[in-house]
Prior knowledge:
alpha/beta
Amino acid sequence: MGFQQHQHEQQEMRKPRFMCLHGFRTSAQIMKIQIGKWPQSVLDKLDLVFVDAPFPAEGKSDVEGIFDPPYYEWFQFDKGFMEYRNFDECLAFIEDYMLKHGPFDGLMGFSQGAILSGALPGLQAKGLALMKAPKIEYLIVIAGAKLLSPIIAENAYSSPVDIPSLHFLGEVDFLKPHGLTLLDSYLDHVVIHHPKGHTVPRLDEKGLGIMNNFIDKIQRQISGKEPTPLEEEREISIA
Length: 239
């Protein structure tokens, strides 16, 4: 009986589905290769959809000679990272993709894709982005940071976001200090620290444990075995 019950539970468990946003001047294919460093046991638990950003790279890519073109970027910015071009167009593109190819449980981003992923739940909660798309419930941020534009930052990070989030912080990543400040905006976060720089790291034993716990928690929530943050909110508000 126990075995049959276990089999039934396995069938009921569905894989968390993440829309994956790649780094600056890279591509969906490149991010797929980067994430491919993770153990198959982790990858088998997730339904990952890798998406090319809407704009062709406007300049040289840091991954030229390592990964093949074409390269794309989500939006453009000035030297001080304060002003952005095509940011609204980027948000519209993401929303359109979610509506056509969703639903997604969450976002996974690396570098520019992680910075974008880290801002979207706050902007969505304020009704300033992804208004037609379902609520982003989960987040995986690899080498992320906060957007520095004062107007966007005020809207994206002023209220803490209460969704489960997993953040990768590299010991020698130039973005690490900014990745740490992003944690302040997420109430329910866990962190995987790794010794590398600005990269998608391999998972050591400790990182693998944190990753598996995070995925298992999501799986239980989306399969109805554990209340989602949204359901918990509703229960509190009813009480």
